[in-house]
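Entry for the shared binder. Reason: the reviewer on the internal report wants the predicted structure included alongside the sequence.
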Amino acid sequence: MLVEEAKKRIEYLQEYIQKIESYTPVTMEDEAVYLYVQLESVTKVVQELNKKGYRIGKRKLTTVDVSNIIRSKPKDEMYELAKRLFTKNRKRGSRHWEVKLT
């Protein structure tokens, strides 16, 4: 890896950390998006949200519910990042984490 590439990665990671640390989820949807950006797994997000007691009506959340939240119209930068990660993960079928933040 070239030094310039390493510097770009470090800059990306610093920006990513700043976005994560400064974001405060308010709603269940915000929490789902916030967790997805960190975990990059709809299944893991569903498990975490259900552990925290989130429900739709009286039923537990499903992967379809979380996928729909992520695919919905972005409300802020975190939603946009989650949607880009989701789309990239769906297209590639991989767990490649580096996506353009802005």
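Summary line for the report: Helices lie at 3-22, 28-39, 42-51, 63-71, 77-92.
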